[in-house]
Automatic annotation (TrEMBL):
Organism of origin: Cyclobacterium marinum (strain ATCC 25205 / DSM 745 / LMG 13164 / NCIMB 1802) (Flectobacillus marinus)
Domain DUF4412: 144-300
Pfam families tied to this protein: DUF4412 (PF14371)
Protein name according to UniProt: DUF4412 domain-containing protein
Region (Disordered): 65-84
UniProt-listed InterPro entries: DUF4412
Length: 319
């Protein structure tokens, strides 16, 4: 699995359509209030699972192309990317279930505001995506909150928590009228291990990942510049010399999504990758003609947040 695919996969896992989940939760709650039978609830569960799969498929399709065909036109479920790398999406979906344990409360110590901008192959800038990445010293879970860049829907909040201890994704939705939640199981480590490595066992193929010697300050953190170049892509990364307190759990090589197997198969890359956090990233896919940039634009280490799941009823669970 190459570095580009790894980074994009981490991002794509974070950006399931929370608006679609919000609509589903409202529909389920209305159905539950009407006293639907358990048989109907089972049907609803299946529909939610199907909808979750469709949202995941849509995310992966937008990033990698048609999941139904590989480079040889096979329609067996092996998806393909533009560089010929294949992956078995059925293994990804096989790791999802709707019956999952969660923690009763998730607490965070602060937040980092992250901005992602991208330009498509026609040179048009896409709408920016902003979200809060919650800070925590607890490596067993990671959380983020989506932000409306224009501030039009401040009353509506969507929070996604990746619970690595329970292999669960928790989605919290709130607005002026109600709070609700949904949780489903997903073995992130298993998903990542199901992705094949490149044939030569090198995560960067014939590319390079090197420190340039340039430094600059970002939000009070001294950062070093790294350049990545390969046959089909190039990128610039500004990485803090020291880990940012509370942020090292996800935006670094210590992310729980990066498994021991992946580190062993890509030892040369992970040995050279620094211990800090990615503070800025500028990436260009030369084959696709698209580019993206990610910036941490604010860090507040003294803005605690706690989410008690009792405050967010899950319509999928029986009372």
């Amino acid at each position: 699995m190459n570095f580009k695919s790894l980074f994009i996969l981490l991002i794509s896992l974070s950006f399931l359509s929370y608006d679609a989940h919000s609509q589903l939760l409202r529909k389920i709650k209305r159905a539950a209030s009407q006293g639907v039978s358990r048989a109907v609830e089972k049907t609803v569960e299946k529909e939610v699972e199907k909808a979750t799969q469709r949202q995941l498929e849509k995310t992966f399709r937008n990033l990698y192309g048609d999941l139904g065909e590989n480079t040889e036109g096979d329609t067996t479920g092996q998806g393909g990317s533009s560089n010929g790398t294949t992956y078995d999406f059925s293994k990804v979906m096989g790791s999802i279930n709707m019956n999952v344990d969660t923690e009763s409360e998730y607490s965070f110590t602060g937040l980092a505001v992250i901005e992602i901008k991208s330009t498509n192959k026609k040179g048009k800038e896409e709408d920016p995506v902003n979200f809060n990445s919650f800070l925590t010293d607890n490596s067993e879970y990671y959380g983020m909150e989506f932000i409306d860049p224009e501030g039009k829907n401040d009353s509506e909040k969507s929070i996604i928590i990746m619970d690595h201890k329970n292999n669960a994704t928790v989605i919290l939705v709130e607005n002026e009228e109600e709070k609700s939640s949904m949780a489903f199981g997903m073995d992130y480590g298993g998903m990542m291990d199901n992705y094949p490595v490149d044939n030569d066992g090198n995560s960067l193929g014939n590319g390079t990942f090197e420190k340039t010697g340039n430094t600059k300050e970002i939000l009070g953190y001294t950062c070093e510049e790294y350049r990545m170049e390969s046959e089909d892509s190039e990128g610039t990364y500004w990485i803090s010399k020291e880990p940012v307190e509370g942020l090292e759990g996800f935006w670094s090589k210590n992310s729980p999504l990066i498994t021991k197997k992946m580190k062993e198969q890509n030892s040369s890359y992970f040995t050279s990758f620094p211990d800090g956090n990615i503070m800025e990233m500028y990436f260009t896919d030369n084959d696709e003609g698209v580019s993206s940039q990610m910036k941490i634009i604010k860090i507040d280490t003294n803005q605690p947040r706690s989410f008690e799941l009792a405050d967010y009823p899950n319509p999928m669970k029986a009372n």
